Amino acid sequence: MRTEQDVRRVLALREDLVPDPDAVLAGVRRVGARRRRQRVGAAVTGAAVAVALVATLPFVLSGLGSPRRAVVAVPAASTTSAPAARTPAPTGVRPPFAFTVDTARVAGFEIEPLTVNPDVQTAAIRPSGADQQRATLFVYKPGTNTRVGGDAMGWEVWTDKQPTRVSVNGATGWYTANEEASALRWEYARDGWAVIGSNYRQAPLTLEAALALAEGVRFVAPYQARVPYRLDYLPAGYVPFHLVQDTRSAGSYRSVVQLQGQGRQYAIDISIADGGSWPPKWKGKPTTIAGHSARCVDLIDGRRCAVDLGEFMVDLGCGGLTASELSRLVAGIRPATWSDPTTWSAVNTVFPGIS
After folding, report:
1. Where would you tag: which of 32, 106, 128, 141 has the fewest CB atoms within 10 A of its CB?
2. Which of 224, 245, 280 is the last residue in one of the domains?
3. Alpha carbon distances (Å) from 61 to 99, 157, 269
């Protein structure tokens, strides 16, 4: 198992992609501490959580200071917010990389879908007209086991206060907060839970603000996440397990697709962010891949290459690929118009085997 020092070394080498390693490490430490307490020996699950923490940075509910006491939601005496008509929840099965949360403006905030995988989708919550994210919405697929070793993933807050029982559109919910963080969770559909958690280094949301946001979440029919390219080639056996689609602000777009391959030592990822120059402090050796200028470096988590495709710079986590596979993958990337997300391709048309 990799140590915290290993994680820190990876983040130091990938300084351009991970602007706040302490936030990631805080989340990793918290997950690790919870699982040690509960004696959960699931190494594969732990690795997946760590990858998701890095992939969604800085949109994870983490960095809540020194561990105190983990509060498990139990009934409390007080009740806030009168029952209202429940927001219609999606019916049927959500495709693994489709969103069911719509964009919305609620009580001075904007809600924008951000990441998705088969079990959970997230949305960024920020003040209207602002760039900095204030909170994150997590929406778990109905029936998803959101507990690991008895611990409620996604909505735990380190606080000494008991949670307050509330009503969200007529459904039972729980709110808890301290001076550093807040979280509101509620059952948006039968056996389906949603969570609104304040972001690291952002002021906790008040109960009133959290309730207004929760009651303003809009569910729609599933629609596929999108990526800014098509692929002519993908090595056999690789399938996505996590996707980031960040199109909140022109000039700061981001796209990440993480894939795992059967029998492969490393996962791979295709990451693109705004900027037409080499990543800052990139120490990779100049090379050429499929006729494109590139720089590559070997990291603890496998090889990474930044490739200049003209329309954008693509950063490939390619430790699981042979030189031939990498060359074919790069040669087969057909960029969309980066500045126009309406030209991006639905993920199920780009990666085989996605419904």
Report:
1. 128
2. 224
3. 20, 9, 23
